[in-house]
Amino acid sequence: MHIAAAVNSFRYYSRSRLRARCLSTIGNSKSTVDIKVVNGEGTETELRKQQLWLHNTMSKQKELFIPKVPGKVGMYVCGVTAYDLSHIGHARVYVSFDVLYRYLNYLGYEVKYVRNFTDVDDKIIARANELGEDPIKLSRRFCEEFHQDMTYLHCLPPSVEPRVSDHMPQIIDMIQQILDNGCAYRINGDVYFSVDKFPEYGTLSGRKLEDNRAGERVAVDTRKKHPADFALWKTAKAGEPFWESPWGPGRPGWHIECSAMSAAYLGYTFDIHGGGMDLVFPHHENEIAQSCAACRESNITYWIHNGFVNIDSQKMSKSLGNFFTIRQVIDLYHPLALRLFLIGTHYRSPINYTIVQIESASDRLFYIYQALYDCQILSTQHDEASLKDSIPAETANCINKFQDEVLSSISDDLHTPVALAAMSDPLKLINDLLHTRKGKKQALRIESIAALENTIRNVLAILGLVPASYAEALHELREKALKRAKLTDDQVHQKIVERDTARKNKEYDRSDVIRKDLAAVGIALMDSPEGTTWRPAFPLALEEEQVTVP
Q: Where would you tag: which of 83, 286, 298, 325 has the fewest CB atoms within 10 A of its CB?
């Protein structure tokens, strides 16, 4: 489903004539609340009233988002350097900005989202030499792997995905403009940006020139006029890919590529530039300098950066042996459990990846999908035409409160943890209506269940958590749980049979051991009059470990 279609249905029930935001008032004496019919034009007007506040790294404070062109947004997010499989730090960047992209679409903006690939870089060349591959072909292969990872994580494709190797004319033209404006100099085929020519250098990061790290991503070059000067163009070396330029054969430096590609697709002035916190300096600082040196009118309104990912409270790094690729994580956990984990912490805060945290996210995801799946099953058992266009006041109030909390939290600098927490009340109401004696007797029960399911599903669409089908997602979550437990479904059912036999024989200690052994590895047994089934659960062994930790 197209994003605009998915998220703009947020305020509607499954029946298009019904509006999900029930117009109830506190103290309403009516036991039910009619659902107001609102056409598409009216809904669009309401959506546009929602204000969005974003933290701007440049100003170091939250600011009201006002696009340069009313109704349109230009957003550039720095992409990966494609030389290996992407890790969960990459996942956090692109999930964070995917939520922003989805929410901007929900608010009714026409968004041009540009995310680049760096396919020309020292790291790519080094890896290609190590594997005996052509650097461009190697990078192309890992670009496709990245696309697959983004599909797994439900990250929508950007509007444009430019690659460095396809934009050499634009890069060369920008370098020439910077030279013509007196902000760069040549040394034996290399071209360097002169930071002394840009007095505002350091404004984004708050660094002073004397604090800057010389030689980021490259060896220190003593030929430079200032240690912080950075390469715009590097002369060709033997065995490396190169392109012809006015300064001789070579390839671009790291920073210039994003300035050139963002200008090519969004112009020199646009709304949002984003990436990980590690890009504030030197990458984005250098981008600002060279873009302004090429065009005095260059201006980006909002600089947005997400926080780091730590592993068990340590910085993630290959040298520490705590480096996890996206593929490694989703081999054992559902990709949307990883996404839920990532948006469960505010995007600017550091996030700590632990087995406990990802298990909790997986367990929560199963709970959400099971509740919504049960809603769908019940709803399909009733003729839609027989349903009324009203719901009880309790349900309407729950929906209104939920939607207000979601909109206010996401509009407050994408506070997704608050939006996720707000889901608890409507989920509890769903389970009451589905499973409790009182809930099953509730007037307009089916209408309430349909309304609640649809409302939650549309919030999940904004968060990128709607699966292809609840049934399929539940099956995948069960399969991942079995893999983590190192069991098969047949083995679990054999344990259930053994436990049933033990209970019939009044061997209750044996029965409890079987249940506890399965619970220890994340398999929870569920007894009912129809028999015993199982579901994934937070492993009891992990709970016990947490209790024993001082």
A: 325
In sequence order, the 6+-apart residues with CB closer than 8 A to the CB of 547 are: none
Q: Note whether residue 40 is domain-resident.
A: no
- DSSP H/E element including 172: helix 168-180
- Last residue in a domain, options 418, 437, 469: 469
Domain contains 33: no
List helix spans (H) across 344-444. Answer: 355-380, 393-411, 416-421, 424-435, 437-440
Strand partners, 87: 325
Per-residue pLDDT of the chain (550 residues; tens, 9 = 90+): 333 333 333 433 333 333 333 323 223 333 344 433 333 333 433 434 589 999 999 999 999 999 999 999 999 999 999 999 999 999 999 999 999 999 999 999 999 999 999 999 999 999 999 999 999 999 999 999 999 999 999 999 999 999 999 999 999 999 999 999 999 999 999 999 999 999 999 999 999 877 655 445 445 678 899 999 999 999 999 989 999 999 999 999 999 999 999 999 999 999 999 999 999 999 999 999 999 999 999 999 999 999 999 998 888 876 677 889 999 999 999 999 999 999 999 999 999 999 999 999 999 999 999 999 999 999 988 877 678 889 999 999 999 999 999 999 999 999 999 999 999 999 999 999 999 999 999 999 999 999 999 999 999 999 999 999 999 999 999 999 999 999 999 999 999 999 999 999 999 999 999 999 999 999 999 999 999 999 999 999 898 777 554 4
Domain match, 252 and 181 both: yes
441 with 380, same domain: the answer is yes
One domain, residues 318 and 171: yes
Q: Are residues 461 and 493 in the same domain?
A: no
